Amino acid sequence: MTIIDYKSAGVDIEAGNLAVAKIKNSVAETFSKNVLTNLGSFGAMYDLKDILSEYNHPVMVQSIDGVGTKTIIARMMNKFDTIGHDLVSSTVNDIIVLGAKPLTLLDYIANDKLIPERVEQIVNGIAAACKENDISLVGGETAEMPGTYLKGEHDLVGVVTGVLEKDKAVLGNNIEPNDIIVSIASSGLHTNGYSLARKLCFDVAGLSIDSHVNDLGMTIGEALLTPHLNYTKPILHLLDQNIEIKCMAHITGGGLLENIPRVLPNTCDAVISKKAIPALPIFSYLNDIGKLSETESYKTFNMGAGLVMILNEKYYSKIEASLMNFPKFQINKIGSIVQGRGNIKLCE
After folding, report:
1. Per-residue pLDDT at 31
2. Do residues 56 and 187 share a domain?
3. d(Cα 284, Cα 289) in Å, to the nearest integer?
4. Rounded alpha-carbon distances, angstroms, from residue 303 to 27, 254, 326
5. Is the confidence at residue 12, as pLDDT, over 80?
6. Could you tell me which residues come within 8 angstroms of residue 23 by beta carbon, excluding any fewer than 6 positions away?
7. DSSP labels for 98-160?
8. Please, what's the largest Cα pairwise distance for the chain?
9. What is the per-residue pLDDT across 90-127, written as a single tens digit (0 to 9) for each?
10. Helix (H) or strand (E) holding 311
């Protein structure tokens, strides 16, 4: 007689326990003194008393995001550590543009079949990025759901929580004509536009994951797995310098054309100079393959601008001087604000 149990239905509890054992130490290394629970607790407890005492009117800021179909590239490469970094960057960047200091991260890893070594790589990447940016990885969930996910599939999602002083929230309330637009360069696609990028590389160009691309100086798999930059340290440093940044935008899905209008008042337009944005080879390569229209490119990819700030021009030299402490982050003046209706205009 065939024995029917949870494992025969596709869920391996022992594999889950092994995965937890493999990640326990790296997760614990991210804990600050404020973390009150260990990995495996039913819920994460985080002591806010000392942190909130530093604020007159503390506001909690949260965001949720995932790595999207970049996980498919990770599977094709059989390399899962960098998408852990991607998860931290994609979530944390979304709250630092509001002026928040990130405190904690919760992760969610779902699979059709739980592979402990894969989970270990992913979580070690998450933990390393959290530790680098003083964020506590307070817990998460690892789910094995055969039938919900196709064979070999996995998903990766995170929730970040931060705090800010209410009257220092960066909301774009005082944007006006003659303000300048400054970008901090991206490292490539980050975590956006991968459905189009995969179609162009593998369907249109007929590449394999390990095809070497001379224009990129690496394989296409390596180029597409380039980690998403985390802007936490340079942005918090700028805010600590009392530089008045009127608003910021993390350039994610929707590119420059969709993300900048999210922070514009309906009385102003943003005029962007395309040639002022650093030209990254990956975008030229993808555009050449697909003969993409300008609108499609700037609406799908970040095109080299990973984060955008709007501010009075008098602060630009101070920003340049402050970011000399962060040499891997390149800043460029890429445009200006004019009277308008909340739109973005591209020019040469």
Report:
1. 93
2. no
3. 9
4. 34, 11, 21
5. no
6. 39, 119, 120, 123, 124, 127
7. TTPEEEEEEEEEEESS--HHHHHHHHHHHHHHHHHTT-EEEEEEEEE-BTTB-TT-EEEEEEE
8. 80
9. 999 999 999 999 999 999 999 998 888 999 999 999 99
10. strand 305-311
Q: Which residue has the higher pLDDT, 13 or 225?
A: 225
On whether both 106 and 236 belong to a single domain, the answer is no
Residue ranges making up the domain that contains 37: 13-168
Average pLDDT over residues 198-207: 97
User: CA 148, CA 2: separation in Å to the nearest integer?
Assistant: 24
CATH number of the domain that residue 149 is part of: 3.30.1330.10
53 shares a domain with 144 = yes
- Give the chain's domain count: 2
Check: CB of residue 201 under 8 Å from CB of residue 283: no
For residues 207 and 342, membership in a common domain is answered with yes
Residue 193's closest CA among 251, 276, 107, 248? 251
Q: pTM for this one?
A: 0.93
Whether 252 shows a pLDDT value over 70: the answer reads yes
Q: How far is CA 186 from CA 1, 14, 45, 96, 190, in A?
A: 59, 40, 34, 16, 7
Across the chain, mean pLDDT equals 92
Final residue before a domain boundary, out of 133, 168, 203: 168
Same domain, 26 and 100: yes
Integer Cα distance of 80 and 72 in angstroms: 10
Rounded Cα–Cα distance for residues 322 and 168 (Å)? 19
Both tokens assigned to 184? 């901090």
Query: How far, in Å, CA of 290 to CA of 235, rounded?
Result: 35
Q: Domain check: are 204 and 321 in the same one?
A: yes
| Boundary-marking domain end, from 115, 139, 168 | 168
**196/278 same-domain check:** yes
Residues 124 and 192 in one domain: no
